[in-house]
Description:
This protein is mainly alpha-helical. Helix content is 80%, strand content 0%. It has 9 helices and no strands. It has helices spanning 3-10, 18-54, 62-70, 72-97, 105-121, 132-145, 149-155, 161-172, 176-236. Helix 4 (72-97) crosses helix 7 (149-155), helix 6 (132-145) runs antiparallel to helix 7 (149-155) and helix 8 (161-172) packs across helix 9 (176-236). It starts with a helix and ends with a helix. The model is unreliable at 1-17 (pLDDT under 50).
Amino acid sequence: MDHALDLLAFCGSPGAGAGLLLGLFVAGAAGSALHCVPMCGGFVLGQVADRMARLPAGALCEWRRVGTGALVPYHLGRLSTYAGLGAMAGAAGDAVARLPWLGGVSGVLLGIAALMFAAHALRLPGLARVPAGWSRLVVRAARWGGDGYLLGVALGFLPCGFLYAALATAAAGGSAGFGAAAMLAFGLGTAPALMVVGIAGHAAGGRWRRGVGLVSPAVMLLNAALLAVLAARSVTGG
């Protein structure tokens, strides 16, 4: 069974299944100010400071500062990791769903994703805690990754409950292609907040966080509600 097609069909019209991908993009944009900036903002600011220090004084124009702060190769590295993780999650979800006694696994995964997005929207305590050993391992690998793209690839593996919620949605799609697309959409949503921090600095990033933070819980709750409806439909066959 192609679970991705089932999910897309719910969105109304052929091809309008992009609505689910759009939902992940919006959820990534809304939640990144509260989750990605605190976790990865230091890595972004460190890279920008290092690159600006290596620029000759004559090259310090406004466009060069914006280009340096955007850290496009770094974000491409993160997106590569997210797409790879999404493809693996989607393929694993498909393999599990094919087992005769686990046919409803996509609904379960969507339900888990809905609960995790709702928990982040309500800012329940303990969600930001990640295994310290795993975080140290990823940071150590990032040092070997050097600048730009490889650093983004390494840091894309930083453990994060927000990321796990998106991966659960990707796994529910039931295909590697849908999983990769889902995580690309989510990753693209998380990029603007980090780019604002890189270009405008921590103070401006703080203002961005406060602004987005006003609507972030509502957006993630709406996303959780959509996923919950999809989960119910998948389980009941409705």
